[in-house]
Amino acid sequence: MLPTLNGRIQTRIAMLVVVGGLWTLLLTPLLPLPGPLGEAYAMTFTILLTTLVLGVAWEFLYHLIMQFRWEKDWPTGLSLITVVNEGALVWLLLSLDAVPGLDGPSVPFGAFALLFLTTWLVVWLLAVGPMRVPFIHWRFRGGRLV
Amino acid sequence: MRDDTIELPGRGPVAERAATPGGQPGDLTQELLDTDWWSDDMLVRAGIPVHDVPFVSVGGGIGSFVTVDYLRICGVPTSAIKVLTQLNTPWESYEYLTRVSQIPRGERLRSDSASCPDNIWGFPSYGIREAWATKSLKPLWHLLTEPFLNDYWTPKAGHAFDSMEREYHRIGYPETVVKGQVRMVRRRIGGGYFTILTPPEGAAPTRRIAYRSRYVHIAVGYPGLKFLPDLQEYREKTRDYGSVVNAYEPHEQIYQRLQAAPGTVLVRGGGIVASRVLQRLIDDRDRLGLQTQILHSFRTFVTGSHGPHIWMRRRGGDGWAYQGFNYPKSVWGGQLKARVRKLEGQDRADLYKQFGGTNTPKRRHWQAQLRRGRQQGWYQAFQGEIANLRPGQNGTVHVELKTDQGPRQVQVIAVIDCTGLEADVREHRVLADLLDHGGAGRNPLGRMDVERSFELRGTRSEPGRMYLSGSAANGGYFPGVDTFLGLQIAAQEIADDLQTLGFCSGLGPLRSTSQWWKWARGKRI
């Protein structure tokens, strides 16, 4: 996938909202989270939203790094391993209780890691190939959906 | 084609005869030759039979194939398409070029895993399919770690040809093919176009056949690949066509001579073909214990990273400029594609120049081979140009080189020229006719000027449209035209334009998914 900055941001938003949203909906009841299910959903969806907002900012940094590459590309493997820095930042903000609307320190690490890693993996697996099946124009239009 | 042009499959010489009244009926008349816009009556007067079909594709190579594939998937029946070609299969010419330039079916192309001319979605990519077929995770690991821990993964040539063959039958492509040589395309008074085909001798009662269509697609491939003048001069003077060759000619005899007796060979050029030829020479050396000495001349000897500024630097070294694919990867969908799409005139030509230039992928295997050659002294690379070639003693070639270290004389048993001049578009007869009579013009790089939709600018014959894709469109709003993926991008733009004209269905999420599912099951459409 060789999208433009605009395309990457659009794809990220669409993927996290649709695929990430569905996945979070399915996974949350199975996660070892404290409190009733409603609170658990509030927690997981706040984490998803935080990932989304921070992710848009990350894209600008990745775009800058790409400029140093002659190919101006972002190899597939990088899209996968950026789970480490992005996950670490969200966890750091949770630990510092810096995520609005959420008691960050109360989120168990295991549940967070499971949610973050699996959501990332599902989104990545769809974005690197199957996404092109329904959205054949998306591929050649720099990842733009609109 | 002139005789300084390398012969390719499907480019048989044109046996042109002057229109002779009383000769074979149905030939071009002076009236037709001289007129830019033709009426139906003019063809009747010339006795040329006219066949009606909505869409004609001229060329029949991979450019025609991926365009027809796209249109078939968009619901166009085979009866609405005619592909006019001299080729036996769409990949015949490409396979010839890859084979002689040392990429037989078992070797890997320089093409991305997801550039699949048999599959417009590029999913599953060649890498995934190879992993599945070989029951191995290796290709997947390779894809995941490219280009950092591994070279870019690329498919085997045979994989690409076999998969194209499957798609060729799945979409009923053979039903669209009409054999013959296209002579010209002219605009029709009243709309659309006439494409004049010269059928093979004896295949039709008339000398020419005309196809009257609303839409025409031109994908004739390289206008021609020319021998460099020094090479051509030596061959013409000495009639020795076996020792001084272009790598795009069959040149197996040189490898055989090196097997029979040790010798020195001069390789010229810094592109992928030079890399492949060097690999063949070194593989033979290793496999058969040969003593081949290799001299390698670069016109521009690259010593390190190069480029106009920090945001535009390409890696290089040991003579080579390194790049994974024919173009920086983002021309096929990323930043560079978006940038070029907005540029006009000189600005566009300048950007093409920045990412152009001869280059080759930095493959670990090649690096190791050449390093060993340098260390052991049997491979020597240098900046140099050939000043003179003449026959040497005992069937050798005496080469005078002009290098940055001064003149140098060498005796070699062969010169393998891995450079090539791409001929001007005018050298292709159909393209020349379009420039002279079809209203077509040139782009900032001197090739055929196409719109963003790949409509050939200036050739419109309402309500008809003429499109052009492939190498002849290089220099347009989209740079990677002469690649697998580039041809698919062009096909998508053409199909989108044709959809707005009502010729085919759009490829929205539902149709796209259901068509992909048919592809996945190998279901004929």
Automatic annotation (TrEMBL), chain A:
<keyword id="KW-0812">Transmembrane</keyword>
<keyword id="KW-0472">Membrane</keyword>
<feature type="transmembrane region" description="Helical">
    <location>
        <begin position="40"/>
        <end position="62"/>
    </location>
</feature>
<feature type="transmembrane region" description="Helical">
    <location>
        <begin position="74"/>
        <end position="94"/>
    </location>
</feature>
<feature type="transmembrane region" description="Helical">
    <location>
        <begin position="12"/>
        <end position="34"/>
    </location>
</feature>
<keyword id="KW-1133">Transmembrane helix</keyword>
<protein>
    <submittedName>
        <fullName>Uncharacterized protein</fullName>
    </submittedName>
</protein>
<feature type="transmembrane region" description="Helical">
    <location>
        <begin position="106"/>
        <end position="129"/>
    </location>
</feature>
From TrEMBL, chain B:
<protein>
    <recommendedName>
        <fullName>FHA domain protein</fullName>
    </recommendedName>
</protein>
<dbReference type="InterPro" id="IPR036188">
    <property type="entry name" value="FAD/NAD-bd_sf"/>
</dbReference>
<feature type="region of interest" description="Disordered">
    <location>
        <begin position="1"/>
        <end position="26"/>
    </location>
</feature>
